[in-house]
């Protein structure tokens, strides 16, 4: 379970960030929010968060100054700075002070999720085998869990192996071999089988036409969707729907 601290002085924005994270992650414990820079430092000392969402323009001391002090307390923390466009130069300065990423406000949910995903992968890879007593195999399994969660959220889009390997900070060739070794199936086949399983659920639970199901699962061509479904289920989608309807 990862610990995340939100540092933001606007209540509505804190609530919005919290909702996005709670909706997307089961493995993140959101700590009590900090409303200013001083509170951020105090809560960092007390809770030692793994990830911080830090607004730059907060009362008492700025987010950048708070970050400078926090990183001395929690060196491995992954801080994601939230900044308005007019503060872009400050965001660039933040990168020099150990900030993992920065997002322009208003923050889009998909950008926030991507930044947190990358922070989690970075945290997982940075685990010290000696310091934690964890084996490298456990670290790799944690990375795989993160990858599978990423695929689950993006299977409806045109998801490519290279993009997922980049997300996991792994060489594409190594990632391809590792994924097949661990899952017993190639990356491409895993994604296609996942789409087919989602299609079966839609065929069973809705009256959507085939072309709509294909579109919702990221297939631009219904004919190709039919071929993929036939390959994995040995029958076309309409036959499958007829079978389960009986």
The low-confidence parts are: 128-133
β-strand amount: 5-15%
Order of helices and strands: EHEHEHEHEHHHHHHHHH
Whole-Å distance between the termini? 44 Å
Briefly, what CATH class of the largest domain? Alpha Beta
Mean pLDDT: 84
What does this 3D model show about the protein?
- The structure is a single chain.
- Strands 2-1-3-4-5 form a five-stranded parallel β-sheet, sandwiched between helices.
- Helix 4 (88-96) links the parallel strand 4 (78-83) and strand 5.
- The longest helix is centred in the middle third of the chain and has 19 residues, at 136-154.
- It is of the alpha/beta class and 246 residues long.
- The protein is elongated and about 65 Å long.
- The chain has helices spanning 11-24, 37-47, 63-73, 88-96, 109-125, 129-132, 136-154, 161-167, 172-183, 187-205, 210-216, 222-233, 237-245; strands spanning 2-7, 28-30, 51-55, 78-83, 99-104.
- It has three domains: 2-125, Rossmann fold, CATH 3.40.50.2300; 129-184; 189-245, Homeodomain-like (Arc Repressor Mutant, subunit A), CATH 1.10.10.
- The chain contains 13 helices and five strands.
- Helix content is 61%, strand content 11%.
Write the layout of secondary structure elements.
Elements: E1 2-7, H1 11-24, E2 28-30, H2 37-47, E3 51-55, H3 63-73, E4 78-83, H4 88-96, E5 99-104, H5 109-125, H6 129-132, H7 136-154, H8 161-167, H9 172-183, H10 187-205, H11 210-216, H12 222-233, H13 237-245
């Amino acid at each position: 379970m990862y610990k995340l601290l939100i540092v933001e002085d606007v209540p509505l924005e804190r609530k919005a960030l919290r909702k996005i994270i709670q909706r997307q992650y089961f493995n993140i414990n959101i700590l009590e929010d900090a409303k200013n820079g001083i509170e951020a430092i105090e809560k960092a000392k007390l809770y030692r968060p793994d990830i911080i969402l830090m607004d730059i323009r907060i009362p008492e001391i700025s987010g950048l100054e708070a970050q400078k002090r926090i990183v001395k307390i929690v060196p491995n923390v992954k801080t994601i700075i939230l900044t308005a466009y007019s503060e872009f130069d400050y965001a660039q300065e933040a990168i020099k002070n150990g900030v993992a990423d920065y997002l322009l406000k208003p923050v889009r949910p998909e950008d926030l999720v991507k930044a947190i995903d990358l922070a989690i992968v970075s945290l997982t890879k940075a685990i010290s085998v000696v310091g934690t007593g964890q084996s490298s195999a456990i670290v790799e399994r944690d990375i795989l869990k993160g990858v599978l969660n990423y695929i689950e959220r993006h299977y409806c889009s045109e998801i490519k192996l290279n993009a997922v390997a980049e997300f996991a900070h792994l060489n594409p060739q190594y990632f391809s071999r590792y994924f097949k070794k661990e899952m017993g199936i190639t990356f491409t086949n895993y994604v296609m089988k996942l789409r087919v399983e989602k299609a079966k659920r839609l065929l069973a639970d809705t009256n959507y036409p085939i072309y709509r199901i294909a579109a919702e699962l990221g297939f631009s061509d219904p004919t190709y969707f039919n071929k993929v479904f036939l390959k994995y289920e040995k029958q076309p989608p309409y036959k499958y729907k007829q079978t389960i309807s009986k």
